[in-house]
Amino acid sequence: MNVRHDEGPPEHDGGLSHDLPVLARRRMIRLMAGASLVPLVGCTPDGDTSASSSDSSARCARIPEETAGPFPGDGSNGVNVLKESGVVRSDITRSFGDSAGGTADGVPLTITLTVVDAASGCGTPKKGAAVYLWHCDREGAYSLYSEGVTDENYLRGVQETDDKGQVTFRSIFPGCYPGRWPHLHFEVYGSLADATAATSITNTSQLAFPKDVCDTVYATDGYGESVRNLGSLSLEDDGIFSDGHERQLATMTGDAADGYTAALTVPV
């Protein structure tokens, strides 16, 4: 199956001409942070209770902005799944609506994203926001776009954040395709109404998976191509994560037999 791959070689997605503006902004932020001795470490608890709220805010950097890639399904590149009835769901392993009705196979994966207010030092959950999440299947194909799965819309869904600012999706561990480290995409919206109207995105980013978990998952049945593809990649050389992945690397629990849980805090 010939699959166009997300953020792969330049001919697939606009390449560096598309990604460099985002990456340049991120590098400039890091340089400025270094000059002011402010660590960009995301939401790290501060044991000094006398620290000011401004200090806490400085230590809570917003999630890095990344490209949505060529297969977003949000109307920015062709098809728009966000306006379809049924997209608001927690189980994204199956296609819905008028699709072909297929199911994505693979090692079970639960994804929990906690959306918080960066300005508050990551101390305030963003209740009532919404997250649209999507990723490739075990073979590295993206529903709606890749050859053979254009009639499917699995591995895409929207959830509204709860009182803790959390959304949870039930999915499968994505495969690794040539040119990109294993990852998933997400967009944050101010409300569920904004998400289902495909308007007013507040943040677009990506989550990276740790190498040891990828190695374990890809040793299971169905991920054979991922073993070879991952062998030629590293987080340090990835076109998206090479300038820093610490705040986008998922915290993982579980195992390949029963499934994994990936958790990430998303300051916005």
Brief overview, please?
The chain has 268 residues and is of the alpha+beta class. It has helices at residues 10-13, 15-35, 53-58, 192-196, 211-218, 224-231; strands at 108-117, 124-125, 130-134, 156-160, 166-172, 183-189, 201-208, 251-255, 259-267.
Give a description of the structure.
There is one protein chain. With 268 residues, this protein is of the alpha+beta class. The chain is 19% helix and 22% strand. The strands form 2 sheets. Strands 1, 2, 5, 8 and 9 form a 5-stranded mixed β-sheet that branches. β1 and β2 form a beta hairpin. The longest helix has 21 residues.
Strand content: 15-25%
Count of alpha and pi helical runs: 6
Order of helices and strands: HHHEEEEEEHEHHEE
- Name the structural class: alpha+beta
Number of strands: 9
Shape: globular
Low-confidence sequence ranges: 1-6, 8-55
Kindly report the average pLDDT value. 85
Helix content: 10-25%
What is the C-alpha radius of gyration, as a whole number of Å? 18 Å
